[in-house]
What we know:
The complex is a heterodimer of chains A (293) and B (418). Chain A has 293 residues and is mostly helical. Chain A has a domain at 20-223. Helices cover 72% and strands 4% of the residues of chain A. In chain A, strands 1-4 form a two-stranded antiparallel sheet. A two-stranded antiparallel sheet of chain A has the order 2-3. In chain A, helix 2 packs antiparallel against helix 3 and helix 2 crosses helix 9. In chain A, 49% of the residues are buried. Chain B has 418 residues and is of the alpha/beta class. Chain B has 2 domains: 34-152 and 292-374, Response regulator (Rossmann fold, 3-Layer(aba) Sandwich); 156-290 and 377-401, 3-Layer(aba) Sandwich (Rossmann fold). Chain B has a 7-stranded mixed β-sheet. Chain B has a 5-stranded parallel β-sheet with strand order 2-1-3-4-5, with helices on both faces. In chain B, a hairpin with a 6-residue loop joins strand 12 (361-365) and strand 13. The radius of gyration of chain B is 24 Å and the shape is elongated.
Amino acid sequence: MPFDPSILFVQFVSGLSRAMILFLMASGLTLVFGVMNVINFAHGAFYMIGAYMAFTLTQYLTGPLGFWVTLLIAPTIVCIVGGIVEVTLLRRIYKKEHLLQILLTYALIFVFNDLIKIIWGVDLRIVNLPKSLQGFVRFFGHRFPVYYFFIIGVGTAVAILLWLLLKKTRFGKVLRASAEHRDMVGLLGYNVGGLFTLVFVLATWLGGLSGAVIAPTVRLSLGMGMEIIIQCFIVVIVGGLGNIWGALLGALIAGQVYAFGILILPNFAMAFLFILAAVIIIFRPYGLLGKAA
Amino acid sequence: MCKSKRSSFLVVTLVLVFALLFLLPTSALAKKPIKIGLVDCYTGGAAAFTKPALVAWHMVVDKFNANGGLHGRKIELITRDTKFKAGEALSHARELLLKERVDFLAGTVSSSCALAVSEFAKKKKKLFMVHIARSHRITGAKGHRYVFRGCPSAAIEGVAGGYFAATKPYRAWYIIGDDYEYGHSIADNFWKGLTKFKTHVLKVGEAWPKLKETDYTPYLTALMAKRPDAVYAAFGASGLISFMKQAKLFGLFEKVPVFAYALGDSLFPKVLKQNMPIGIYAGNNYLWYYPDTKANKAFVAKYLEYTTKMGKPDPYPSGIGAFGGYCSALFLTKAILKADSVKTEKVIKALEGMTIQTAIGPIKMRACDHQAMTPAFWGQVAKVPGRPFPVMKDVVMTPPAKVIPTCREIAESRRAAK
């Protein structure tokens, strides 16, 4: 069978779409760790809520704009939930050790899992693609669904917007300062508590958005958050905790390693990623773009 | 005078007490329920099958109880959720046996859970009736005296799929499936059947994404790069749904014929709706619309009536869930009545060789391996006028005798496994 070089390009695009999903998730994760020094295991739960919200909303908003309105509403609901969680629960453990954070956020996973079970039941759910994004693009004799390009577009837009937020706005400057020296920022009169809430809200908004965006391509089930969160942690650690560009780089690496791994040795695709992550951490313990704490 | 009156009073009291002691237990025993411990996964994708299976169990048990039970003893079903984990299945089975003191164990949807509980049942010498899990090892290499299966084995259904695929002109095959016990079992058996009934077939590639994979995109592109003549999909319920959705996006079905095990089940068109792929080949163990016999229509009506009474009317019984559960429950309850006992050894003896009459004809429980000899159905998914969602056309019903491994092969595999 002759080897078709266009396959490489197709695999690259599929790796790219996978990378963008991971980036949307990982960006929220790395933001929370960078600024607030909190390891948020519950991030996968917000992704799951976003997906289930998208399901319910698309059931009711059936018009042509339904999906787009869903993309606006679903992450908003998720970030409100995130805000409540931050104010009532997370605030109490900021100064405490990491182990306590892990315990709390891990417990939240179970709580949310059961809440979703109570509200939505245990049946499999699917979300349909919006009509405007159905169809596919042809290149080199292969078909690639338009929706995956949409995902790539959303990921890129989020990356650029986050960068602008952090580099160009006052809020972004204060965020970066807090990541470096929380106490100093507090001494300067900024409301660090309120800042943290905003950051957490932003992170959960990103998590909810990634859930809503990926929903039409997968089946919704309990525990879907757990499946993706492990890969997100790899992405964030490889890229460097607290660094948005690191998250993007890590996600790109993860996506492509997996995509090409499947082409070469499908049984080891996942192993390649973990081996690569281990190697990177050995040589650069703070991740590719991370800095020493 | 007082002393004799007191002593006679004592005697009467003692007689009454002894009478009560003897009468009460027997009457209590007559009311003591027969307990069946049903371990299964009621969370996640598998619940789509286990819930209808449980409904079917209740249907059979209610009838058994309404007919007077076993000399007045009624069956009580106790369920436990395994969350698709073998460790949980095992601990629940242990708790059911030691604490609840169940007379029989039943379950599960997951093949790995079934194997774990089966080993436990073997040690404890308790009967375990498998009602959904498909791995051939359950009644094959890992089978034993105490495990029975009232639903098909991959050794029957997978091989029947291979037999069906052998009638089509495809030579170069790509196999893709969930990387766990069930996926590998239905793929291995399919390949066994295909190579047995057709020569010169070759496998151009295979891929085994992990069980909870959400994104099959890189697998789909790698698959299409190999340019196979046909593809065999060996996924569990949730994997199949995700894979079908994404494969449809990629136009896989227009490029290459796909054979999907279990996609013929009524669950999938209900969940996938407009994502249901048309034109692909699918198999299942039961179809609510084929054969179009009186017996099948009666079963569908009975199931609808029962589910309506429970508040969730279901006019299209699931083969994997409802029918598998129904047959397994029927085997067990009939055997209890035939043995006139709940003692494990007597029920085993009654079950071996027993035939039940079902909507799709008689099904026999083979004595040598305790596997129900079930027919398999394969066909092509199509939009048929008059049907509420896409169903199969050109259905081929393969009788079990044609494809089931021989008793000798089973015995050899069990010897080799020791």
